[in-house]
Each structure stands twice: as C-alpha cells, then as structure tokens.
Amino acid sequence: MNDFSMLAHKRRSIRDFEDRSVQESLLKEIITESCLAPNAQNSQPWNFIIVHNRSLIRKLSDESKKNILERIDADPGTSLKKYQEILKIEEFNVFYNAPCLIYVAGPRQVRSLQVDCALWACYFMLSAASRGLGSCWVDLGADIRDPQLLKEIGLPQGYRIVAPIIVGYPKRIPAPPERNTPRVLKIVS
Amino acid sequence: MNDFSMLAHKRRSIRDFEDRSVQESLLKEIITESCLAPNAQNSQPWNFIIVHNRSLIRKLSDESKKNILERIDADPGTSLKKYQEILKIEEFNVFYNAPCLIYVAGPRQVRSLQVDCALWACYFMLSAASRGLGSCWVDLGADIRDPQLLKEIGLPQGYRIVAPIIVGYPKRIPAPPERNTPRVLKIVS
Fold this sequence. Notes:
The structure is a homodimer. Chain A is an alpha+beta fold.
C-alpha cells in the first residue's frame, strides 16, 4: 500500500472528540493546504468561517435543526424526513460537541461552488487526518438563516454555506463502514 | 511536509497524455480505493463507466460541445458563455485526446449525489496521482443527451453524470496554478 492508500484507509468520519482545542496555527496550515484542491477555472470560490466558541456552535446546531424540521413539515416527502426523530431530540447537537466548526462558503452565483467547496472539504478531511486530527462533514448543520446568527458568523449576503466541518482530536476511532464493490456499469474498450 | 502534503503539492490537473493506455486492473484498483471517500449516510451512490475507445471518447466530446453551445444560445447570460469560442473549434476535444475517460454517475433523486460523487472524484484524482497517473475533471464533457450515445455508454435512465474524469500517463506536468491566501471571513473564539 502506498502512502495515500494508507491514509485513505485510516481516515474516518469522527463524531467523538477529546476535550481539547485545536491550535489556530495548525488549523490555518490545514486550511491553506486544502486550497491546493482542484477547482473549476482556478476560481477558488471558497471562504472560511472558524468557530471555536462552543456556545455559538450549540446555537448554530439549534438553528439548523429548527430550520430543517420546518422544511420537513413543509414537505413531508423530502428525503430529510429520516432525520426528523433525531432532530426533535433537544439535547442532540448536530456538531457532536466538537471543539471547532469550520464553515466553507462562497457566492451563490458561482456555478461550480458546490463542487469546488466539496473538493476543498475532501482535501481538508484528508489533510486533517494526516496530522492526527479527526473531522466530519455535517450536512445537518448548514441551514442557518437567523440574521443575528449570520452576522455573528460573518457570512456575507449572497453567500451560501456548502460544508460545515467539525474538527478536533478523536477520542474514539470508529470501525470502517462497509463499502460495496464498485458498480461498473459498462467498460467500452 | 508529511506524505499527504507532498501528494497535494504534486498532484496537478493533467491535460497532456502519453500515447499509452492505462491497465484495466490498475484503474479498478484506483476506483475501488476511491470508494473509501466519505459520503452521506454511507449510501455510496456512485457508479462508473469506463471508456477506453478513443473514437467513442471523441463522439462524447462532440456531443457535449454541441449541447453546451445550444445551452449558450438559449441563455446568452449563462456563465458557460466564456467557453463559446473554444467549443466552436471543431478540432477541440474537451477530453484532450486522453486514452481513458471515466464517468461517475448516479440516480438523479439522491439528494447528496453531486457532493458524494465529487468526494469520490477527489479521492480518485489523488489516488491516481499517487500511482504516477494524471487526471482531470472535465466538466465540459458531461452534457450527453443523444439516446444512442447514452446507450453506448450504458447510462441507466434517471441517472445523471456528475463528473467526467480523464486519466492517463502525463506527458507534461504543468506548473502549479497560483493559489490565493485563504479568505477567512471570521474567527469566533
């Protein structure tokens, strides 16, 4: 196995963290390295918000839960429906009490925004794992609408959060989730 | 620099390939490794189409160019407009005469399809680079609608191509594109 293979096998989505903060300088090193990710037209539409404040992280979790529950009520056929029960549990923190939350965001009108930020996030999760940190993309934490909270995190108007990523030192490394055999639909020689 | 840092710095988007095909077994090794990518709910919605046939790759390029040009005609305000001139050049192959093209695709109704496939593609590009191969996500090659061509590549009804990725042995490694200093909008301590 080469080095990347080992890292790909080692990286896990981490949802259980030590009660220990992540140094700002280390975070910035990882964020900078992740900007080496491929992206459309080298436009690098990614922007970052870093939240260490646990009470704010909690408020962001509550806000996103509330908004997603409203979306489920408005459209009971949505695929979000499967999260309804867990989102109703008041103590449930979508960010799993992580010591740090990073939002990756960019201008809504950028056509490639979602894909570019996903590629950035992929590099981030690998780069963090290569340094002994754990992370997880928490899609349930992206639905922030409250003007006061948007101001607190400094999201500019017209920007969209693509990926909320929690990061910290793993307390427990979960077993690898099972993977299917790749579904190759066709090979044309 | 750790191993991932070196790989992140080494990987480039490659658009100039040696006239040498990629072994099927090596491709499958990379495809399988890339399925270790994180994805929503471990749903792994990714499916793969592998095209080695250069005349089919050329036809897919022509089809996608034609369709994107039609979209530009129908909506001159689109951000695709900037590609109009190059797409009109008959000899221009959006796949840069690569020896192999991989389509990553999945069911349209999967909410996380685009992001999951982007994360898969990210692993693929890194895994390929770690083995000395070059690759590039070619968004201009995704717009395939002709029923005969869709049949030739075996795309099931209701599936959407997320990422067309070309892969081969690099003839020339381009200089690294410049990267901006990360834009950190706010740090909340």
